[in-house]
UniProtKB/TrEMBL annotation:
It comes from Hucho hucho (huchen). Signal peptide: none annotated. InterPro entries: Ig-like_dom_sf, Ig-like_fold, Ig_V-set, TCR_variable_region. Keywords: Adaptive immunity, Immunity, Immunoglobulin domain, Receptor, Signal. Residues 21-108 form the Immunoglobulin V-set domain. It holds the Pfam family V-set. One of its GO terms (biological process) is adaptive immune response. SUPFAM superfamilies: Immunoglobulin. This is Immunoglobulin V-set domain-containing protein. It comes from the Eukaryota. The keyword Signal applies.
Amino acid sequence: QMELRLYSWCFQSARVTQIKRKVTSYEGEDVSLNCEYNTSLSAPSLFLYIQFTNDYPEYVLLKDVIGPANFDDKFKERFDAHLNSITKSVPLMIQRLQLSDSAVYYCAHLN
């Protein structure tokens, strides 16, 4: 089994915080990365980006209160996210973890 580490970082300036800074899991497992947000908006929008080693952050998804998450095509198959306006959190679920998922994940709130 291969151990993978997923780092979830969030932009503090956007009033988004992290529940877990580092998640360790194994290839093939399902994992959840969670970000919380704080806003007075009734319909917030959150963005998620992924940054691989020595590369620029790239867009993964946009999630708001209404409708499904708007994913980049290459993340649609195994990634999912739901915005919970009561707990003010957005867990990113990754199914069947792969070595290539090991990266830094950024979430940001759109004011």
